Amino acid sequence: MSSGAHTAPASCPRPTVALRSEFPGTAEQVALVRQWLYATLGACPAADDGVLLVSELATNALTHSASGRGGALTVTVFHRSGDVRIEVADQGGRWPTATAGDGVHGRGLVIVGSLARAWGVTGDDSGRTVWFELDCP
Question: Strand, coil or helix: what is 13?
């Protein structure tokens, strides 16, 4: 009997290479990013948090970069000893200014900072990668 809910077994598979996928820069692709990450993380106990956070970062990439204006975004997953690192690379643009949130927008990176063990940003207006790490015993 299936309830439709995702349940992850207690161990995290460790691929020997980074897994990467590129997605067209449209809002409809965010659901496909989530599905791809669930399939990629498999049994990782951090899958639910990873999918929530990658959804936030993919949405940010589409909203605040050239990725959402006819471009694409790339998601990369690294399974390492004891953790998983997920990166979302966009095609650049103006980085949003920090806000406390207007009730609808502005809380995505707060959520990332609350759930991730570590996170950060590399790059500049010509292309940026936002990454986070989650424990995955």
Answer: coil
Report the C-alpha gap between 66 and 28 in whole angstroms: 16
Specify the pLDDT at position 56.
95
Tally of structural domains, the chain: 1
Q: What is the dihedral of CA 62, 31, 121, 98, to 10 degrees?
A: 60
For the domain that residue 36 is a member of, what is the CATH number? Answer: 3.30.565.10
In one letter, which amino acid is 13? P
- What is the spatial order of strands in the sheet that 19-24 belongs to? 19-24, 72-80, 83-89, 127-135, 118-124
How many H-runs (helices) and E-runs (strands) does the chain carry? 3, 5
Distance of CA 33 to the CA centre of its chain: 8
Q: What digits encode the pLDDT tens for the residues 31-89?
A: 999 999 999 998 889 999 999 999 999 999 999 999 999 999 999 999 887 899 999 99
Residue 113: the pLDDT is: 92
Range(s) of the domain holding residue 68:
19-135
